[in-house]
Design brief:
Shape: globular
Strand content: 25-35%
Order of helices and strands: EEEHEEEEEHHEH
Structural class: alpha+beta
Radius of gyration: 13 Å
Length: 126
């Protein structure tokens, strides 16, 4: 299963991709979307929401189940991917690019040390 090397992963199958300027994109892994099946609804936090690492940040609903989403790092939501809210199937089609969920201003970059790198994540899901 695909897990790009340029990001970190949580054991709950979310990823974080740090960007220049102290922000990071957050999404779910290809493994997670594959387990969910066809995604039909996504609920995400509003811009300005402060989140703590591993706190619930929303839900994703598929034809199989409703699953909670957990934020892999603390921070303030600075952008929400409205495209994925209006077209939830983007999570199935492109979970690592067009299917990103939120952008956060990182609260504590050292929290990245609590996550798995791509090799560790691939071992977890194998």
């Amino acid at each position: 299963m695909d897990a790009p090397d340029d990001r970190m992963y949580s054991k709950e199958h979310e990823w974080v991709l740090p960007e220049d300027g102290g922000t990071a994109l957050v999404g779910i892994s290809a493994f997670a979307q594959d387990q969910l099946g066809d995604v039909v609804f996504v609920e995400l936090p509003a811009v300005g929401t402060s989140l703590e690492q591993f706190q619930q940040m929303g839900e994703v609903e598929s034809v199989k189940a409703v699953s909670e989403l957990f934020v892999p790092v603390s921070g303030e939501v600075v952008e929400v991917n409205g495209e994925v809210v209006s077209k939830p199937q983007l999570l199935n089609e492109d979970p690592y690019a067009q299917g990103w969920l939120i952008k956060v201003r990182l609260g504590d970059k050292s929290e990245l040390d609590n996550l798995l790198d791509a090799a560790q994540y691939r071992a977890l899901i194998s």
